[in-house]
Design brief:
about 200 residues; mainly alpha; two-stranded antiparallel ribbon; about 5% strand
């Protein structure tokens, strides 16, 4: 039986509450809004929701912790790189927060999709599509430190177990992590973004 010439292509875009339609396979910076990112990240749970507290520990809150750690690890770092730290997990407003073991099982195609989205987000907000290697390494270090504290304070890991997976959390003050309500963390994320963005292009 011959294939239909006008077969319907699978939908690869998602409609955002802003009205934007973001194509996951070919994301355009013009279809990205910070309000959509904040709304989504505030509703995506870290650790698949397996954390203590009355609320999930959201990706939005995690991103704010990482941005703070980057500033502690490198005092005086340019504002644009702090903005990059705040946005380091921004693609998860579209694709969700897959735990590391599942990402490993999915393979490189998932990582490629995530990187395309992150590059578009960077361009949308005046950052280079690909970060300098030293900046990317610093953000990754802050990310692993945040994971250690989240694991031990919220996700039930013993300290020795967290050390094995995430390494020693050196160079930052120990935080007291308390999962925030969705609306609160969404508002705080947008406020932090607006504080960093005006200076990002100049510092």
């Amino acid at each position: 039986m011959p294939k239909l010439q006008n077969a319907i292509r699978p939908r690869a875009w998602q409609r955002m509450l802003s009205g934007r339609r973001l194509d996951l396979l070919d994301p355009s910076p013009f279809d990205i809004e910070i309000e959509d990112i904040a709304h989504g990240l505030a509703r995506v749970a870290r650790w698949n929701g397996q954390t203590f507290g009355d609320h999930a520990f959201s990706v939005a809150q995690h991103c704010m912790v990482v941005e703070d750690f980057v500033a502690q690890l490198k005092p005086g770092i340019a504002q644009r790189w702090r903005l990059a730290a705040l946005l380091h997990d921004a693609p998860e407003y579209v694709v969700g927060d897959l735990i590391s073991p599942f990402k490993a099982a999915v393979g490189l195609d998932y990582k490629s999709l995530e990187n395309k989205l992150l590059a578009a987000i960077h361009v949308r907000f005046g950052l280079p599509a690909t970060l300098p290697e030293d900046t990317a390494t610093l953000i990754k270090r802050a990310d692993r430190i945040a994971a250690y504290f989240e694991a031990t304070q919220l996700a039930g890991f013993a300290a020795a177990e967290a050390l094995e997976f995430f390494g020693a959390p050196r160079g930052v003050a120990q935080p007291k992590l308390t999962p925030l309500p969705t609306a609160d963390v969404q508002r705080r994320f947008v406020e932090r973004f607006k504080t960093l963005l005006p200076n990002a292009a100049h510092r």
